[in-house]
Specification:
The protein has 115 residues and is α/β, with parallel strands linked by helices. The chain has helices at 8-14, 51-63, 91-102; strands at residues 25-30, 37-39, 47-49, 68-73, 107-109.
């Protein structure tokens, strides 16, 4: 249980039961390109965003009091090995760097190895 108390953001997420914006995690979908905001047809009001739009969206998310995002990448190419997850210049890795540069206090959750 100590690992859940290491950082203030994690402590806030596992604290006593109460619901607030600080307990929420905003999913964000990132795609290659610039100035891209394309709707995800199966999910109303959800968009795939280019990195510059993703950073702007993260600014709004943080202003609403949400301190964590879950990042999903949509690579241009996929293979059986999932090599995009290990590519240092993959879409999730690039987006992660841009988010942390713009918002170092934002908690970013991904399904790729650490960079």
């Amino acid at each position: 249980m100590r690992r859940l108390r290491r950082h203030s953001v994690l402590r806030d997420l596992v604290r006593e039961t109460e619901l607030s914006a600080g307990h929420l995690i905003q999913p964000l979908f990132v795609v290659p390109g610039e100035g891209v905001r394309e709707p995800v047809e199966s999910m109303p009001d959800v968009e795939r965003l280019s990195i510059n739009e993703l950073v702007a969206e993260a600014t709004e998310v943080m202003a609403a009091g949400v301190g964590a995002v879950l990042l999903f990448g949509v690579p241009t190419e996929k293979d059986e090995m999932g090599s995009g997850a290990y590519d240092e210049e993959g879409i999730v890795q690039l987006a992660l760097r841009a988010l942390k540069e713009a918002h170092p206090e934002l908690t970013v959750i991904t399904d790729v190895p650490p960079i």
